[in-house]
Amino acid sequence: MSLLVLYAHPASHRSRLNRRLLKEVADLPSVRVHDLYEEYPDFHVEVRREQTLLLEHDIIVLQHPFYWYSVPALLKQWMDLVLKHGWAYGEGGTALRGKRWLTAVTTGGPEGAYQAEGSNRFTMRQLLAPIEQTAQLCGMQFLDPFITHGAHRLSDEALATQAKAYRQRLSSLLAGEQPTVVGKDKQ
Amino acid sequence: MNNDNLLYQAFVFLAAAVILVPIAKRVGLGSVLGYLIAGVVIGPFALGLMGDSGGHDVMHFAEFGVVMMLFVIGLELEPARLWRLRLSVLGLGGLQVVLTTLAAGGVAMLFGLSVQMATAVGLIIAMSSTAIVMQTLGEKGWTNTEGGQNAFSVLLFQDISVIPILAFLPLLATVTPPQGATAHETTVTLVSGLPAWAQTLIVLGTMVGIAGGGRFLVRPAFRAIAKTRLREVFTAAALLLVVGISLLMDQVGLSRALGAFLAGVVLAGSEYRHELEGDIEPFKGLLLGLFFIGVGASIDFHLMSAQPLLILALVALLVIVKLGVLLLLGRVFRMPLNQNFMFSFALAQGGEFAFVLFSLSTSQGILTTAVAGPLVVAVAVSMALSPLLMVVYERLLMPRFVPKRNEHRAADKPDDHNSVIIAGYGRFGQIVGRLLSANGISATVLEADSDQVDLLRRWGNKVFYGDASRLDLLSAAGANKAKVLVLALDSPQKNIEVVHTAKKHFPHLKLLGRAKGRIEAYDLLDAGVDDMQRETFESALRLGMLALRRLGFGAHQAERAVGIFRRHDESALRELAELRRSNDEKAYFSAARERSQMMSKVLQADISDKGDFHDPAWDVEALRTQIPS
Question: What's the topology of domain A3-174?
């Protein structure tokens, strides 16, 4: 099993949480960290190179902050360009079939804000629907997302705990443990 | 001279050069001094290997090196730039010749010479050696400094003034010419029998002829020859041009070097400029080397050992008088002290024209052999000493008044170590520096232009003055504490030198190099820089992008087209650098020739990559066929 972390953070130097999470897993065996904003500061995503990387790994982790209920702009650019018709989906688009997709997202707001009665009015699962469907269309297994809420208020201890949990999650994925797959029938 | 003899002489000259020049260069004396020493060694007073003729045949031939050098200098000097130099050529150059003539003539009169003789001596001493000065300045990368530019202006004026001096000298004749003295080449011309006004007219006509002929005759001719794709014929044509002009100049009594220079300037704007440069360069270099060897060999050690004190005194006087006048002029023309030193030390020697003028003077009965003999030796010795004088300037003077200012500044902030050093703060380095400064990072600057240094210091920058390839300067600038060294010097050779120094003594430094073009980029990569940027590449891409937009490309479409091309070109650059490294061609080709060969490889890579320039992003064609209507 090999795992590719697609890390997308436009201001990584300001990030406390995401950087820490990334650091925690970077040294795991068979993990390759691919920092998109470092690789493509000009948004010139190299399609063939990215596709090769995807083919070389079994588990794809998209780690990013949750911006406007979606991915940072460069990760969206990456999706638009790399997940091409005829390659990732559509006729003959089977390149990614059977691979696993894990979204590891951090939010500024607390967990309670992502509820029907909260300020964001929808749950994380609902808000992540476009991403889940992207994975689905590519024939990938969309795993239960790894979500960290309240990025700005997290205490150092909570941060450490969360980082450990992240490492644990990726380790068990690498060990081939049966992952929790988000079923289509689930809400 | 029979063939064996020619081959034998060639062998001696080449062997001396091949053995001694690399040694001289290695110990930091420069190639000119190496050639001169080689000349002394094989000359009649040491090993005496030059045959019966004493190398005079070779010398005659070698003077062509100077002609070719002026041609190449002309090629690099477009008329517009020459026009900008007019003030320093006429003002500085004119005053140099006049004042040196007066001063040297005055000294000559103290030695008991008549006014006429003293005037002749003064005029002859006023000349400096274009060959030695330009070669030395070029080697040190100082051609484009203020001092270097001014030195060039003075040399140009001297080259021009040889013509009137040649005409004027015979008027000074006071003694009967020695019996059987042959009239000199300059007197057997087509125009010598004509009245002065007609001569002037012919001279002017020739100049105009060269200018017009260069544009309307030579350029189309080269175009036609280039079409034949016969390299050697192109080379032959280039040589033919220089030889032809020299002959023409001889006929009208002008200096060959001046004619060649003029032809060079006329062709500076032509499309074959680099080709011409590349073709002439090897000949120029070799002949110039021969010329320096000849100068070394012609130093008359018999005369020197007969009157050592006189010769020594003459050399000292020559250098001191010239130096004095030059320093004074430098001050009057408000050169910064250091540039003034460079300018003055560069020009403080006798020139190759002195040999011609002295022999003309003796044959015309202006000077006696007793007067001219020791002076010829003194001029030759001063020429041999002048590369040494430059070494003295570089090692002793240049660093001398620099640390003083730095101590003062260092005292302001004792432990102020910047993590970035920028070597070269011209139009390129400045942008780098300003970007860093806008982000709160102050850089230590190394700059060789003292005006620039003063200006930067006034604005509170930490600036070190001098040659960035010097280890002591790099150390003083804090290279052992810095993280990044930006190489933004104008001279590609200097940049490479700094890379070598830095890699050897400060291996922790990340080296970021500015390359002029591809060849320089390859050189920087070979030298082992960490990052490299071609100075024109990004801006040319941006302009190209604007062109695409004017042609109807959308802004983002154009931006992506540029991005794809940039990636392609950068990877091609690295591949070609690798190819070149393994071929090891670079040592054999002149930069100009390599450039044209490289370009065809680059164009080839463009063609074979054509498919990749198509941007498949957001392509909806495939989708369209699938979606049921």
Answer: Rossmann fold (3.40.50)
A residues 26..45 contacting B (CB < 8 A): 42, 44
ipTM field: 0.78
**Residue B434, domain extent:** 413-535
- Nearest Cα neighbor of B246 from B234, B265, B259 is B259
pLDDT for position B423:
94
> How would DSSP label each residue in B513-558?
EEESSHHHHHHHHHHT-SEEEETTHHHHHHHHHHHHHHTT--HHHH
Going by the DSSP 8-state scheme, the letter that residue B481 receives in this structure is: T
Distance (Å, whole) CA B353 – CA B380: 11
Domain count, chain B: 3
pLDDT of B609 reads 65
Rounded mean pLDDT, A9-19: 91
- For residues B498 and B574, membership in a common domain is answered with no
CB proximity B568 to A under 8 Å: no
Q: In the prediction, which pLDDT does B210 show?
A: 81
Mutation for testing the B interface, residue in A39, A51, A85 having most B CBs under 10 Å: A85
Residues B335 and B423 in one domain: no
List of chain A residues whose C-beta atoms are within 8 Å of the C-beta of residue B623: 85, 90
Mean per-residue pLDDT for A3-18?
93
Q: For chain B, say whether A130 makes contact (Cβ under 8 Å).
A: no
Query: Do residue B272 and residue B222 come from a single domain?
Result: yes
Which pTM value belongs to this model? 0.57
Distance of CA B347 to the CA centre of its chain: 14
Kindly write down the DSSP assignment for every residue of A102-121, as one continuous string. EEEEE-SS-GGGSSTTSTT-
B439 part of contact set with chain A, CB < 8 Å? no
Contacts of A80 in chain B (CB under 8 A): 617-618
| Min Cα–Cα distance to chain B from A133, Å | 18
Residue among B563, B623, B626 whose CB faces A44 most closely: B563
B338 and B231 in a single domain? The answer is yes
Per the DSSP assignment, residues forming a β-bridge with B484 are: B420, B510
Residues of chain B with pLDDT under 50: 1-3, 179-188, 403-415, 588
Tokens of B361: 């003077």
Q: Report pLDDT for B595.
A: 62
Q: Residue A21 is encoded by which pair of tokens? A: 């999470």
- Asked if residue A4 lies in contact with residue A60, where contact means CB atoms within 8 angstroms, the answer is yes
Nearest to B445 by CA among B387, B411, B485: B485
- The whole-number pLDDT of residue B256 equals 79
- What are the chain A neighbours of B560 within 8 Å (beta carbons)? 44
Alpha-carbon gap, residue B522 to B599, rounded angstroms = 13
Q: Please identify among residues 62-101 of chain A the ones whose CB lies closer than 8 Å to any CB of chain B.
A: 80-81, 84-86, 90-91
On whether any CB of chain A is under 8 Å from the CB of B570, the answer is no
> Is residue A187 pLDDT above 60, yes or no?
no
Closest C-alpha to A24, from A146, A142, A179, A144? A146
Residue B240 maps to a domain: yes
How many Å apart are CA A132 and CA A95, to the nearest integer?
Answer: 18
Work out the angle at residue B483's Cα, subtended by the Cα atoms of residues B482 and B484, and round it to the nearest 5 degrees.
105
Whole-number pLDDT of residue B177 = 53
The pLDDT value given to residue B37: 85
Q: Residue B260 and residue B249: Cα distance in Å, rounded?
A: 9
pLDDT digits (tens, 9 = 90+) for B437-467: 888 888 999 987 777 777 787 777 788 877 8
B42, B148 contact by CB (below 8 A): no
**Chain B residues lying within 8 Å of A91, measured CB to CB:** 622, 626
d(CA B141, CA B135): 10
Helix (H, G, I), strand (E, B) or coil at B240: helix
Q: If residue B463 lies in a helix (H) or strand (E), which one and from where to where?
A: strand B462-465
Say if the Cβ atoms of A81 and B617 lie within 8 Å. Answer: yes
